[in-house]
Amino acid sequence: MEFSSKLLEKAVDEMSQLPGVGKRTALRLVLHLLGQPKENTLQLAEALSTMRNDIKFCKNCNNISDTDLCEICSNPNRVEDVICVVEDIRDVMAIENTSSFKGLYHVLGGKISPMDGVGPNDLNIEPLVQKAREGKIKELIFALGSTMEGDTTNFYIYKQIQEFNITTSTIARGISVGNELEYTDEITLGRSIINRIPFETSLKS
Amino acid sequence: MEFSSKLLEKAVDEMSQLPGVGKRTALRLVLHLLGQPKENTLQLAEALSTMRNDIKFCKNCNNISDTDLCEICSNPNRVEDVICVVEDIRDVMAIENTSSFKGLYHVLGGKISPMDGVGPNDLNIEPLVQKAREGKIKELIFALGSTMEGDTTNFYIYKQIQEFNITTSTIARGISVGNELEYTDEITLGRSIINRIPFETSLKS
């Protein structure tokens, strides 16, 4: 693409570095901004740079936060020794929305994925093992996505903390509420039969 | 969505004002930026605000430019009295890529569209009529998209400049090069028969 303006070209180049945004989409977005009042663009730019400069990660759980200790970790009503291992802030938000968990989180910042060049040392795993070593964890809940990378990460962490007498669990895999059996994939359905739960338990939830 | 960080929330809110970007996509984009070196985000923010603050519109054709007169309008080799009417810079770039046009452009900045609240006065039409009145235009080529709004805008401008003895044309509508007849819509095919061109002419292009 040849641009009549270097400023426009630079803006489009920068925008097109976002994931899923090509040159054409970037041009569309930038032209949209040009058609809006100047303040909109300046506010967007300001919000992005302030966010990147000032944002913090919670010392305890590594979640994104405005303070040294995030709201969840600093809440005295949460159960401190039950820890849910998640990939990133989106998972924290999703679980918080269910109001079904009263413990704390531990945000890994990704999953082990050799294909993408992400090894255990690139993730926030060591502080979790350290907590386990210090006897601060009673139960650990693995809540990573049910993929090869998620399972690998779960297993890696499990091996690291195995010796510390911690109850471990993973969130249940099974048929989504409201789904028909016939549309469920075979692996999920097969596992949901093997890992069946007592009927009385299912009545309570 | 409830965010654990006001800074993050603000950035997501601003990003989600871009067309086609919802809250979830905005969060994904912002988390991507957080995973990248700080410079990337700052450069993006800088490029956007500089672009919005410093960009100019060419005095003559209203195209986006870094100078008062754009590169095309200031090029002495272009034919000054043949003017191609287009919607925005993307159309200029598309036509320039063909190397088939040696005249100047006139960028309207949109199309007349009552549904979107865009009337003739919101567009850059008056300067074009003024040029016509001053006898600066020999030929006017309408190159707007072939939609209801495009046709309306063409007709509106045509009525305004009708009295000034200007040759007017629109870019040809017809079957795309390489297309089979059976997949062409009826209106295009019908028009392409009515507006057929001499075979000798078609050999030259």
Largest interface: A-B, 59 and 59 residues
> Class of the largest domain in chain A, according to the CATH hierarchy?
Alpha Beta
Specify the helix fraction band of chain A: 40-55%
Shape estimate of chain A: globular
Distance between the termini of chain A: 57 Å
* CATH architecture term of the largest domain in chain A: 3-Layer(aba) Sandwich
Q: Which structural class is indicated by helix and strand composition of chain A? A: alpha/beta
What Rg of chain A, in angstroms, do the CA atoms define? Answer: 22 Å
Q: Helix tally of chain A?
A: 8
Find the CATH topology of the largest domain in chain A.
Dna Topoisomerase Vi A Subunit, Chain: A, domain 2
Assembly of the depicted chains: homodimer
Low-confidence stretches of chain A: none
What order do the helices and strands of chain A follow? HHHEEEHEHEHEHH
How is the main sheet of chain A built? 4 strands, parallel
Write out the strand line-up for the largest beta sheet of chain A, numbering strands in chain order: 4-3-5-6
Number of domains of chain A: 2
Based on DSSP secondary structure assignment, what is the total number of beta strands of chain A? 6
Summed over residues and divided by their number, the pLDDT of chain A gives a mean of 90
Provide the β-strand percentage band of chain A.
5-15%
Family (chains A, B): Belongs to the RecR family.
Keywords (chains A, B): DNA damage, DNA recombination, DNA repair, Metal-binding, Zinc, Zinc-finger
InterPro entries (chains A, B): DNA_Rcmb_RecR, Rcmb_RecR, Rcmb_RecR_Znf, TOPRIM_dom, TOPRIM_RecR
Zinc finger (C4-type) (chains A, B): 58-73
